[in-house]
């Protein structure tokens, strides 16, 4: 099996992806609920629902990265177990 990233990078990407998913989903729910701090000022987005959908879409992208990096971590573990020791 082929690996594309190093084991350290795969683990780091997985951890950052988990935090990114949590943050973006929470932010998406906040915009969807029209939390006053996020939606009542002049510089805030005009369409909070569209902003919430964008946050949820970005969370899906992070979930794809999480899946990819988790698979890379598993491939590294599988390859390290199957190496011939001299």
Automatic annotation (TrEMBL):
Coiled coil: none annotated. One of its GO terms (molecular function) is RNA endonuclease activity. It is a multi-pass membrane protein. It is found in: Membrane. One of its GO terms (cellular component) is membrane. The chain crosses the membrane at residues 12-31, 51-75. Keywords: Membrane, Transmembrane, Transmembrane helix. InterPro entries: Ribonucl_Kappa, RNase_K. PANTHER family: RIBONUCLEASE KAPPA (PTHR31733). This is Uncharacterized protein. It comes from Absidia repens.
């Amino acid at each position: 099996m082929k690996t594309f990233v190093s084991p350290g990078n795969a683990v780091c990407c997985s951890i950052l992806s988990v935090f990114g998913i949590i943050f973006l989903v929470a932010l998406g729910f906040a915009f969807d609920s029209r939390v006053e701090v996020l939606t009542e000022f002049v510089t805030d987005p005009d369409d909070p629902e569209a902003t919430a959908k964008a946050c949820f879409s970005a969370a899906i992208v992070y979930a794809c990265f999480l899946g990819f990096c988790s698979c890379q971590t598993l491939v590294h573990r599988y390859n390290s177990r199957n190496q011939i020791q001299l």
